[in-house]
Design goal:
With 517 residues, this protein is mainly alpha-helical. It is built from 19 helices and 5 strands. It is globular, with a radius of gyration of 28 Å.
Length: 517
């Protein structure tokens, strides 16, 4: 009787599938190593170049070098601001979070005062948080700061920035304090609180995440709105305090916020690729964030692409950082747009059929154009604010706003700062009821500085409005009807809609390095 092992049926039904499976496994194994072997030398060259030009670019070296320079907690602006948040009583937090009357700042339109009832309630709640307010106001005297940061291993995306989110509440607390002081005609005290808001935002320092830098940008916007409110509700602010405010705005305008954030994003991207490659981190965790389930073959495919992704990813981030290092303006926006376009092209066109060649880049590389636009906007507003503060100082000295910026003495404004959207000096107009300094904004069109409506972000000019003393402190206006998202007024002071700590900041986070609590 012949052996069944020699029968044609056995060979076709059993041996053939086994041989095919062995062939496929061998093919996958060989392909896996060939793909990696081809890409690895280029990756190693990119790493060597970066090691030579920026020795502290990796996650551990980056955070260790930064953390070692942080001031002690009692001299650290971020730590003290966080302590102030912790001191705010629950009654105040509940009021600010839930009470509609706590949103009156967004309803008020300059130069009109808020309703007395809103101020009375705010004054009462600030009284409950008086110790926290006084501690937070003292932050303006601290030299700088930042929270110690260590990227979580091996899940870099799991790095939480909880304390950073809480600083938004401290900035909001100070903004209410500045508003009440301005309402009470305490211009000097209001400016001190405004300076404290900026100090809290600057307390984030060179934290190497884009989320932290976006929180900082939001804090700067709150500061500018609070300063404009103070100048339209008060008069006779000491020249020394106005000069201090102008210097603070000038310093913040040239800070490389995007460079700080992108260096951390680059380091984190490379490190998470290393962790996936070593098997320390399962990439399915990344895909879980967007609701996709990953099978074992997909994990192996992702690993095969790691050297290529690291090579291209470093190139992309280096281009983004080079763009961020440029002065704020059209050139930087254009360079960021080119970098963003290259990423989009890789994600959309870098495919073999439906299979992406760079699956991690599509998920982990941030939307650089958006953050560049946010930063450029804030530089434009800072420069416009600097000009109007100089004009207010001039009015207090001679009794009138200058007809043109050429009439400003050099000791008030040594040089007119540029509008980053036009590359030309910030524009200025003396008005019948005051003055305005402004940028042409995103559309590049000079609309005369008459429409600074924040809801028209891509069409309106960006500026800072002054009113002459006899046009300040106008009677309260009726409250507008509620609008979706809190209404455009929230943005008129640079105040983003209130968020619970742990939620994404506004603008929305553009990189997934930070999870919600």
């Amino acid at each position: 009787m012949p052996s069944p092992l020699r029968s044609p049926g056995f060979r076709w039904c059993v041996l053939a599938p086994l041989m095919a499976a062995a062939f496929v496994a061998s093919f996958v194994f060989v392909t896996f190593h060939i793909v990696r072997a081809v890409a690895t030398p280029a990756r190693d060259r990119a790493v060597a170049e970066l090691d030579a030009t920026d020795p502290t670019w990796r996650t551990t070296a980056l955070t260790d070098a930064r953390n070692a320079k942080l001031p002690p907690p009692d001299q650290n602006a971020a730590e003290v601001a966080y302590q102030a948040y912790q001191m705010t009583p629950k009654a105040y937090r509940d009021w600010e979070t839930r009470s509609e009357s706590a949103k009156w700042r967004g309803d008020v339109q300059n130069p009109h005062l808020p309703l007395k009832a809103d101020i009375a309630e705010t004054r009462k709640m600030l009284g409950k948080a008086r110790e926290a307010v006084e501690l937070a106001r003292g932050v303006r005297h601290l030299p700088g700061g930042g929270f110690p940061l260590v990227f979580k291993e091996p899940d870099m995306i799991g790095t939480l920035l909880t304390k950073q989110q809480y600083l938004r509440q401290t900035m909001s607390l100070l903004s209410y304090d500045a508003a009440v002081r301005a309402y009470d005609r305490d211009g000097n005290g209001s400016v001190e609180s405004v300076l404290a808001i900026l100090a809290v935002a600057r307390g984030l320092g060179d934290e190497p995440t884009l989320i932290s830098q976006l929180i900082r940008i939001a804090g700067v916007a709150i500061t500018i709105g609070a300063a404009e409110r103070t100048l339209c509700w008060t008069d006779g602010i000491d020249d020394a305090r106005l000069a201090e405010l102008e210097r603070a705005f000038a310093t913040e305008a040239i800070e490389p916020r995007l460079v700080y954030g992108l260096r951390g994003e680059r380091a984190g991207f490379f490190r998470i690729c290393e962790n996936i490659d070593s098997g320390a981190f399962d990439p399915s965790g990344i895909y879980d964030m967007i609701g996709l389930r990953v099978t074992t073959p997909v994990v192996w495919y992702v690993k095969s692409r790691i050297p290529a992704e690291q090579t291209v990813g470093l190139k992309m981030f280096n281009a983004m950082i080079a763009a961020a290092e440029m002065p704020a303006g059209k050139g930087r926006i254009a360079a960021a747009s080119v970098a963003a376009g290259e990423v989009d092209a890789l994600v959309k066109k870098g495919r073999v059929g439906p299979v992406p060649l760079y699956p991690l880049i599509g998920l982990l590389v941030p939307a650089i154009q958006k953050v560049t636009e946010a930063d450029t906007r804030i530089v434009a507003q800072l420069n416009a604010a600097r000009v109007t503060i100089a004009c207010e100082r001039h009015r207090q000295k001679v009794g009138a706003y200058p007809e043109t910026l050429a009439d400003l003495p050099k000791d008030l404004l040594a040089e007119v700062p540029n509008d980053p959207f036009s590359g030309k000096p910030i524009l200025y107009k003396k008005l019948a009821d005051g003055a305005v300094a402004y940028s042409v904004g995103f559309d590049g069109l000079d609309d005369g500085g008459t429409d600074l409506t924040p809801s028209k972000r891509t069409q309106a000019d960006l500026g800072f409005r002054l009113w002459s003393p006899d046009h300040r402190r106008q009677p309260p206006q009726p409250k507008p009807p509620p609008a979706f998202g809190g209404g455009p007024g929230l943005w008129s002071w640079g105040i983003t809609p209130e968020l619970k700590p742990g939620q994404p900041t506004a603008p929305p986070p553009l990189s997934p390095w930070v999870k919600k609590e």
